[in-house]
Design a protein that fits this description.
Elements lengths: L17 H25 L7 E12 L6 E2 L3 E3 L5 E3 L4 E6 L2 E10 L2 E4 L25 E2 L38 E7 L8 E7 L2 H6 L10 H10 L4 E5 L10 E2 L11 E2 L6 E14 L5
Antiparallel strand pairs: 1-2, 1-14, 3-4, 5-6, 6-7, 8-9, 9-10, 10-11, 12-13, 13-14
């Protein structure tokens, strides 16, 4: 649409979405709350859903309602990067034995419900006990440097060896080197999109020396356990309308060293982990 046809001011830097999107976002929030209530009242045990506390990268601008949930990183003995899935266990709920995926990390319950929004709750890999690949697999169509790698093979630590010097046209050298990956791949389902950064800022977070000062003790303990070899990762689904944002993909309003969603200009800070809460949508049972 030509700019002169848009009735919203050009200087806002936002697309023509204010009426429709904000109204739709409100309705979506109502729908999510309703879905959570219905799930609690009527769903078979083990389908998940309901109010969930999570740790994510902080939303700092735009219409998204909250941050994106962190995916704990693990480095295998051969240097491949993996996303840690919560411990799968059987628990008693209402007299029935059900399978869940959750564990305590630093006083915070890390759960598969963190990823149950934006339709991801329908993915086979979201099921607690799914036979899914924990490796973070190369998505070559994203950053130029990834296009030089074989698509679908596991990312490795040494792919990011130049993270302290790497740069592109956004941000500054030394901010960190980003990658994009598929996670929880299965033979019969879609993988979850995950973005990660290897950055000198990540160890500072884990040591309580981040750019925003000390973190709450439980968040600090979680980040210490969820980051490794200067990597931090999160499920890359914007919590607004489910787009796939990118780190160092735009200079919009100072987003050069932030995670920017090109659809409606939400901005996230990957170096500011915070606790949040939302209504996780129920998985198919």
């Amino acid at each position: 649409m030509p700019l002169d046809e848009d009735k919203y001011p050009e200087q806002t830097g936002r697309r023509r979405f204010v009426k429709g999107v904000v109204g739709s976002a409100t309705l979506a929030a109502v729908a999510a709350g309703t879905a959570g209530s219905i799930n609690t009242a009527t769903s078979a045990p083990g389908a998940g859903g309901g109010t969930t506390e999570f740790v994510g990268i902080e939303l700092i601008d735009g219409p998204a309602p909250r941050g994106m949930p962190i995916v704990p990183i693990e480095v295998a003995d051969d240097g491949t990067l993996q996303g840690r899935w919560p411990e799968v266990q059987e628990v008693d709920q209402g007299g029935q034995t059900v399978t869940v995926a959750e564990e305590d990390i630093g006083g915070i319950t890390y759960s598969s419900t963190w990823f149950q929004y934006c339709g991801v709750q329908q993915y086979v890999g979201t099921q607690p006990g799914a036979d899914a690949d924990s490796n973070l697999l190369v998505k070559p169509e994203t950053y130029d440097w990834l296009k030089e790698l074989e698509g679908g093979r596991p990312l490795r630590v040494d792919d990011f060896d130049d993270y302290e010097e790497w740069t592109n046209e956004y941000g500054s050298p030394g901010d960190g080197k980003p990658g994009m990956a598929d996670w929880r791949s299965t033979a019969d389902g879609r993988p979850m999109p995950v973005q990660m950064i290897r950055s000198p800022e990540v160890p500072k977070l884990a040591n309580g020396e981040g750019k925003y000062g000390d973190l709450p003790s439980d968040v600090l303990n979680f980040i210490d356990a969820a980051t490794e070899e200067s990597f931090i990762a999160w499920m890359d689904k914007c919590t607004h309308f489910c787009c796939v944002p990118g780190y160092r993909t735009s200079d919009f309003e100072g987003a050069g060293d932030k995670v920017y969603c090109q659809c409606h200009q939400s901005i996230y800070d990957p170096f500011s982990p915070v606790k949040g809460q939302f209504v996780a949508l129920p998985r198919p049972d």
